[in-house]
Structures are given as C-alpha cells and as structure tokens.
Amino acid sequence: MEGSVRVRFAPSPTGFLHIGGLRTALYNYLFAKGNDGTFVLRIEDTDQSRYVEGAEEDIKESLKWVGMDIDEGPENSGDVGPYRQSERKDIYEEYAEQLVEQGNAYYAFDTPEELDQMRERLKKSGNPSPKYDAITRMSMKNSLTLPEEEVERKLEEGEEYVIRLKVPRRENIRFEDEVRGFVSFESKGLDDQVLIKSDGMPTYHLANVVDDHLMEISHVIRGEEWLSSTPKHILMYEYFGWEPPKMAHLPLIMSPSGGKLSKRKAESEGIPINTKDYIEQKFEPEALVNFLAYLGWSPGDDTEIHSMDELTDLFSLDRVSKGGAVFDYKKLIWYNEHYLREKPADELFPRVKAIANEHGIDPDEEYMKEIIPLMKDRVSKVEDFVTMGKFFFEDPEEYEEQAKKKWKDNSAELLQAYVDEIKEFDEDDFEAGKLKDKIKEIVEAHDVGWGPLMMPLRVAVSGMGYGPDLTPTLELLGKETTVRRIETAIEKLG
C-alpha cells in the first residue's frame, strides 16, 4: 500500500452517536490500526441550526467506551487542525472562491421564494424531480446570467448569496469503490450543489472534500447513503487538481423486519439505537464491537469470536459485503453472554456490587464472588446477576405466575419429605453432592422423575421457575435459609 494510511471518522454533532455511526467508526479504526495508520476524529458541525448540546461529548465518550483511541482530533491535535469544521470557515471560503475564479462554481442570488417558484414551474411542465442544474441555471439569478457589474454591486452591497458548483451537463463520472468495484454516474442526474450557504458556512460536500485533502486522508470509509454524493466530490477533486482518496461505502444496516434500520423501526423492534443506550443498559463493550464488526464483514471462515486486537489483524475492505446487513439482536445477546462468561468474578464484582446497591442490596464480597460463577451460564447481561439472583439475598416475597404452574398436587408432599430429611444434616454435610443424593433417594422412594421434586424446590427457594444449578444454589443459601423457604412455600402454595 503506497503512502501511509490515514482515515477519518467524521460525525455531525446533531444527536447522539447512532449504532450505524459506531460501526463506521469501527471499520475506520480497524482499517487504520491493521495498516499502522492514523485514526482521525473530525467534528462536522457546519450545520449550526441542528447542533445538539452534548452531542460531541457523547461521540467521544462512546468511542472511548468501546476502546477506540483517537490519534488526532479536537482533544489531541495533530498538525492539520483545527478538527472542528466550524473553526475552519475561512479555509473553505478561500477554496470556494478559487472554484468561482476557475469557472467551476458561481454566485447565486436566488431567494427561497424564487427557488420554490422554479420547482413549481418545472413540476407543472412534467418534471417530477426539478433541480437547479445545467438546464435551469440559465433562467435563474446568478453570476452566469447577470451582467458582471450587477454581480459586483450585489456582492459589495452585501446581498445574500450562495456559491454553487457548476456541474457539467453531459459527463460520465466513474470511480472505483473498494467495496463495490467500479461505479458510474451520469452528471445530468446531479444538481448544482450549494458549496457555501448564505450564512457563510460550507455544506458537507465542500467541507469534506477540502478537509480530506488537507488532512491527507488516504481512504474515505463511510455509509452507503453517501454513495450518491460521491460523484460531486469526485468532480471537485478534479477541479482542484487533487488526487481523490480511495472510497469505500459500507452496506446499510437492515431491520430484522426488512428495510433500513430507522429510529422508528428500531424502537418498535426493541433494538437500542444509540451507543449511549448500550452503555446505560450495561452491555459488554467487547460484545458490541465483535457484533458490529460482523455486521457487514466477515473474515471468511467459521470463527465468530474475536477481540479488538484480533479484528485489527483480520479486517480488510475486500471482505466487506455489498448487501445490507441485518441487525440480529439475539446474536448480540449471544455475544454479550459469551464475553460475560469470559470475565473472572474479581473483575465483575465491582460492577455487580454497584448494580446491587441500586437495588438496595449490599452484597458481601466473598459471598457474591461465589454467586457470580454459579450464575454465569444463566445470565445475558451483567444486571441479571442482581435481578435474577436477588433470591440469594432475600426470601422470595411472591412466586412468579409461570413458576406457580410448576407446582403440582404432589409438590407439597415431595417437598415435605425432602425438607424432613435435610433438616437432619449437619452444617458440614449441607453440600451440593449430598443434597443431590437426597433428591435421588426421595424421587426413587416416591417413584417419580426428578422434575416433580426439582421444579417445586426451585420455586420454593427462588420464587422463579429457572435459574442457576440447583444443589450448589442450596449449598450457598445454607441450611437455615433453605429449610425456612421450603416450609414457607409449602404453607403458601400448599
């Protein structure tokens, strides 16, 4: 690969970091790190009207949470800053003026009303998608149609204007996409893109071309929704006489029910849409990274579990898929369960303790560190240690409806037989193996299977019909608690 790899993640602070944005950042990051390159964070805040307070902080915190270190950005400047577009306004003006001087752009003085009239007029004459382009520009109010003196006067008097790109009427614009191969667009489908808005701020199109060039970006890796804007960018590179970076457009993230995963769809399908939601819902960051990496890419073998470092070694753009990737929430939970199981009790304890405290429980460290390994195979998220494991700290106040259905006519009788036996145990004998032998004895004596005793026993001690391995659970609860809970259940459920 010639030259050094420099990529950028360039979000707009118009809201919290969306999960699709996080995947774009991840692919940029993996590509940079796998090629000893540089990962740049650039904040594209030129649309001041849509600026959301706290959004930039959210972006930085999200990247930090998943473990993506920023090499250059607003906090740690390299030598191509500033890294916020709002602080680069003068740079863009200079380049837009250069295009005007070259005859590749022009001043347009049309008012919003005049633009609306133009669109209405074209719609009436049967044009379904009217735009300001090579054909319509000649009937509008701009520096191509007005006398030079009038243009000078308007500029001197400070009349509002925009600068538009002069898109050629008949040209085939072709470029190679690292994911899609060769892509070509007819210029007649493009409008004369606004480059500088009337407030003097650049649009995304001008700012991102100028910045990618000045920041020496080697590869632009972004979402598929920018594919149709790329020909305008390619034209600008041509006009400036610059070599464009390599382009790679990532597949859309699809909803399980079909179509693009929009905010509305995600909400209706119970999929958290912002990275912030995953942080608040206490997902394992490694699980989210592993899941997102596979959302549109695969290493080409059967492996599914990879750390960030391994992904860095494996990732390449030629293995990114062209088709949309379906967001499979169950798969994400599967990853989460995997990464929770990998973590030792020592590492999990402080997090579990904090959650327990929120639930009004103050767990003893030693006791909790015995509960964690016992529950590991049953939990999907870290708070399950507390919500599902609440019965380790307090007697069940009620029994779940589903659990009560497992209480049959002979349940009380079988439990009574069991509790009478285990009352005789010494504290030292109260251990999983011996408790299990005793269950076997009782079910054989009553000529029933394991279920008729195990199920009500679980309901009695936990109030639930599911949970961690039963006899080690009884051992942890201890003799006194186990006996008390069984007797209460017999009394309450009869």
UniProtKB/TrEMBL annotation:
GO BP, one annotated term: glutamyl-tRNA aminoacylation
UniProt cross-references to PROSITE patterns, sorted A to Z: AA_TRNA_LIGASE_I
Location(s), subcellular: Cytoplasm
Keyword annotations from UniProtKB, A to Z: Aminoacyl-tRNA synthetase, ATP-binding, Cytoplasm, Ligase, Nucleotide-binding, Protein biosynthesis
Reaction(s) catalysed (UniProt annotation): tRNA(Glu) + L-glutamate + ATP = L-glutamyl-tRNA(Glu) + AMP + diphosphate
Any one Gene Ontology molecular-function term assigned to this protein's record: ATP binding
UniProt superkingdom: Bacteria
One Pfam short name: Anticodon_2
EC number(s) given by UniProt: 6.1.1.17
Gene Ontology cellular component terms for the protein in this record: cytoplasm
Domain Glutamyl/glutaminyl-tRNA synthetase class Ib catalytic: 5-334
Motif ('KMSKS' region): 260-264
Function summary: Catalyzes the attachment of glutamate to tRNA(Glu) in a two-step reaction: glutamate is first activated by ATP to form Glu-AMP and then transferred to the acceptor end of tRNA(Glu).
Protein name (Swiss-Prot/TrEMBL): Glutamate--tRNA ligase
Native source species: Fodinibius halophilus
